[in-house]
Amino acid sequence: MSHVEIALIVFACVFASALLGLYMRTILPEHHLSDESTGVLKLAVGLIATMAAIVLGLLISSAKSSFDTVNGEVVRNAASIILLDRVLAKYGPETKEVRDLLKQRVGMSIQILASGEPAQIAKLRGVEAIRQVESLQDKLEELSPRSDAQRQLQARAIQIAEEVLAARQLTMFQAVVSTPAPLLICLVLWLSIIFCSFGLFAPANATVIFGLLLGALSTSVAIFLILEMNTPLDGVIRVSLAPMREVLAMLGQ
Predict the structure, then answer these.
(1) Where are the domains of the chain?
(2) Cα→Cα distances 2→119, 136, 218, Å
(3) DSSP annotation of 205
């Protein structure tokens, strides 16, 4: 199920609860809406609203932190790749094949990430993608240095390649963090109860209904943003690939 569909379901549940509250106000006996009764209900709803606000704030903070982490890893990975290319350039013309292969791998990764297709992006976490990076490491190990300087550059290149592989896999796994479904369901239930109480305590008129509509829309948008930021490599809200594209333009020079 897409994030847009989930957000629409949340909106429908919350707004329908508000309309239910408006309807219940018209059919409940008058003594159920006395000051004493509404006072107790407002205290209970206030407690639920506090819990919902805390959970919603924690989810937004966690999603933003996850998004920023992946974005930072992409920038660091780009810096490591350009450093690897410059080390290979210093090694000598013998590394031209390795540098061309590195540029090809980076270009392919950018193309897949830019597509935004979850099925394609999932391949970057697969064994085949890891083997492709390992083949690059194998070519680095096959180099035959002719001096101490080249031996040092080879060792440095192998070390950077290992760091790039580790950072790459860490980024890919961090990008699939998902919001726990039970927590999301519980949050939507709380929001529905809150909006039902809003409808119960308010008179049914166009202004109230419009205000409830905006509130339901806001909560569904908040859920949508949480889900999107938890998947920063695909969807509407994605990390910028500008650093990787800049690196691609510099590789091989």
Answers:
(1) 3-250
(2) 14, 36, 18
(3) S
